[in-house]
């Protein structure tokens, strides 16, 4: 004969644990695992199952813990798989919760229930060797079923147990609903981001494609014009490089892998190479921008991916040049400080508005007429992958300064 159980848990401490634990969970599986574990431990159950609503498939097991079932004929333990352990929408338990939100207690089923209904519910409970079922309703719809086995102690469930289970059910319902809102928000933001990215890329790719289309249409009638053919060749190569650059930026940004290519190099020599490259680009464009450089020291030894860092600093310097629209000075300074190299790139452009400054490293955010706004986002990621930091300060009509701080070997 089962004894009536004495309290084996602190009622209010368990409620506090449930409340605080659910407050930080916005994923359904995380919620189910947490609630299943807390209920199992607090009540000293021999088994527990959580079954979530699966559209068109009834209710499927999303959490289970405790003793495995034994075959009644052979006594052998049987495998609990999700296909055999589920409840369909025509089951006695689901029909019961179509008209009630109360907890089902197997030993109290005779009170106010018909014989056929009792038989159907007991058949469902037998599938899980369950003694109690606790419903979780969200917006008046049964979203989750908690099926509890007996207590490991062999004792009966108490009124206080039922009160705790009702509280857990209500708290779980709120958490499940909030998780749904959170998922909708994330999906909405993801779609908005994809839409913004698609629109930006479509615009940037359409420009070079328009040039290519125009020249291709003129080719039949101007094929014998050597000057036109030379111009056509230059335009085609240039516009294809633009498209290739856009795709490369997107691939670089979408890659979540850190570079594994580590080598030793002189940071000053690396920055010098980038300055020479940018100078050559400015000369080709017949730009009026002048580059000034000032290095404190002769050599700064670093370990890292020189190629990636070159990409980061190139992005920053070209960004500074573009901010000056063909006239101004780009100052590149390097100095050692407390085991770090501080590399600053300062332009004399129009500056950046304070409301735009906080978003400057966000992907697909740009104040320029051309570009998709990935250059600085990629640069920031590369620098952080090298345990560095990047800061920006700006004054309208005065210019902008980007400062990168990287750890060095001989600081």
Shape: elongated
Helix content: 40-55%
Low-confidence stretches: none
What is the CATH superfamily classification of the largest domain? GAF domain
Task: Provide mean pLDDT, rounded.
Answer: 84
Computed structural class? alpha+beta
Number of domains: 3
Could you please say which CATH topology of the largest domain applies here? Beta-Lactamase
- Over the alpha carbons, how many angstroms does the gyration radius reach? 33 Å
Estimate the strand proportion.
15-25%
Main β-sheet description:
6 strands, antiparallel
Query: Between the first and last Cα atoms, what is the distance in angstroms?
Result: 78 Å
Strands, count: 13
Q: Under the CATH scheme, which architecture of the largest domain would be assigned? A: 2-Layer Sandwich
Order of SSEs: HHEEEHEHEEHHEHEEHEEHHEE
Strand order, sheet with most strands: 3-2-1-6-5-4
Number of helical elements: 10
Task: Describe this protein's structure.
It is built from ten helices and 13 strands. The protein folds into three domains: 11-183, GAF domain (Beta-Lactamase, 2-Layer Sandwich), CATH 3.30.450.40; 194-254, Helix Hairpins, CATH 1.10.287; 263-407, Histidine kinase-like ATPase, C-terminal domain (Heat Shock Protein 90). The relative contact order is 0.08. Helix 2 (28-43) packs antiparallel against helix 5, helix 7 (267-284) packs across helix 8 (306-322) and helix 8 packs antiparallel against helix 10. It has helices spanning 11-23, 28-43, 92-96, 115-128, 159-222, 226-254, 267-284, 306-322, 354-357, 375-385; strands at residues 47-54, 58-66, 86-87, 104-105, 132-138, 141-148, 263-266, 288-295, 301-304, 327-337, 340-346, 389-395, 399-407. It is an alpha+beta fold and 411 residues long.
């Amino acid at each position: 004969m089962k004894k009536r159980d004495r309290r084996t848990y602190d009622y209010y401490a368990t409620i506090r644990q449930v409340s605080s634990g659910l407050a930080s969970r916005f994923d359904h599986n995380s919620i189910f695992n947490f609630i299943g574990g807390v209920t199992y431990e607090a009540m000293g159950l021999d088994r527990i199952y959580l079954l979530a609503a699966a559209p068109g498939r009834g209710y499927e097991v999303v959490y289970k813990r405790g003793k495995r079932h034994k075959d009644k004929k052979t006594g052998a333990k049987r495998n609990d798989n999700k296909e055999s352990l589920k409840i369909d929408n025509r089951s006695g338990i689901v029909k019961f919760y179509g008209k009630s939100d109360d907890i089902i207690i197997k030993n109290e089923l005779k009170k106010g229930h018909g014989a056929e209904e009792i038989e159907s519910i007991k058949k469902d409970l037998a599938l899980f060797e369950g003694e109690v079922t606790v419903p979780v309703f969200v917006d008046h719809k049964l979203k989750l079923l908690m099926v509890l086995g007996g207590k490991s102690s062999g004792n009966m469930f108490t009124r206080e147990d039922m009160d705790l289970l009702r509280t857990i059910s209500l708290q779980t319902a709120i958490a499940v609903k909030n998780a749904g809102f959170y998922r909708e928000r994330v999906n909405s933001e993801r779609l908005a981001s994809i839409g913004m990215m698609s629109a930006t890329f479509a615009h940037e790719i359409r420009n070079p494609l328009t040039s290519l289309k125009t020249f291709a249409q003129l080719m039949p009638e101007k094929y014998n014009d050597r000057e036109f053919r030379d111009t056509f060749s230059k335009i085609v190569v240039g516009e294809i490089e633009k498209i290739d650059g856009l795709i490369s930026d997107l691939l670089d940004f979408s890659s979540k892998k850190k570079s594994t290519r580590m080598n030793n190099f002189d940071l000053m020599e690396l920055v010098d190479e980038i300055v020479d490259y940018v100078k050559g680009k400015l000369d080709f464009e017949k730009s009026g921008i002048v580059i000034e450089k000032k290095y404190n020291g002769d050599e700064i030894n670093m370990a890292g991916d020189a190629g990636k860092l070159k990409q980061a600093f190139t992005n920053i310097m070209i960004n500074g040049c573009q901010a000056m629209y063909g006239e101004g000075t780009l100052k590149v300074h390097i100095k050692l400080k407390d085991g770090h190299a501080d590399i600053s790139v300062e332009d004399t452009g129009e500056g950046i508005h304070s409301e735009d400054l906080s978003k400057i490293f966000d992907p697909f955010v740009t104040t320029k007429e051309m570009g998709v706004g990935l250059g600085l986002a990629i640069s920031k990621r590369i620098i952080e992958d090298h345990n560095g930091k990047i800061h920006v300060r700006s004054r309208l009509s005065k210019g902008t300064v980007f400062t990168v701080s990287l750890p060095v070997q001989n600081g």
